[in-house]
Specification:
5 strands, Rossmann fold, globular, 165 residues, alpha/beta, 5-stranded parallel sheet, 19% strand
Length: 165
């Protein structure tokens, strides 16, 4: 039997509880979920690539599982659809929080369908408590000594404290 493989790509700078919620939900839909951490130096991340990989892996290792899905953390630095083909993924999971997310994702999905019609994009709406949470907000609030413990795991908060402290 062929395994259903999906990818959930992102920069994860840092990973949030909203990301983890999407990972849990996506893991119910595939046999293998590859959480793909983009190198994406163009975004000028706070955490370097290795730090982001380690944070994502630590949070997934400590996450309550909701399925028997094999969740893997991997790095990627290429066109998303090329990467999806490389790992034999049939779908790409994307989280949506707001209308602004939808506009960007709609455009990207249209291009991906044109380039790779065999790869499906699956949108998962963020739960109410995570709709306003973004990695950018987390970094900004934390840098200004605001409280972000409700939005990230203790391990990620510790990493933020070490990086911005």
């Amino acid at each position: 039997m062929t395994k259903r493989i999906g990818i959930y790509p992102g920069t994860f700078d840092p990973i949030t509880k909203g990301h983890l919620h999407i990972i849990k939900r996506a893991s119910k839909l595939v046999d293998v979920l590859i959480v793909s951490v983009a190198e994406n130096a163009n975004k000028k991340p706070l955490f370097d690539h290795e730090e982001r990989l380690a944070m994502v892996q630590a949070d997934i290792d400590n996450m309550e599982r909701v399925s028997d899905c094999d969740i893997q953390v991997r790095s990627f630095n290429k066109l998303l659809i090329d990467y999806a083909h490389e790992v034999n993924a049939g779908c790409v999971f994307r989280g949506l929080r707001a209308v602004s997310d939808f506009d960007y994702e709609f455009q990207m999905t249209g291009m991906n369908i044109h380039l790779a019609p065999d790869i499906e994009t699956v949108f998962l709406m963020a739960a109410d408590q995570w709709q306003f949470v973004s990695s950018s907000f987390i970094k900004e609030i934390h840098a200004l000594d605001g409280e972000v413990a409700d939005f990230v795991t203790p391990a990620t908060l510790d990493a933020l404290n070490k990086k911005q402290g």
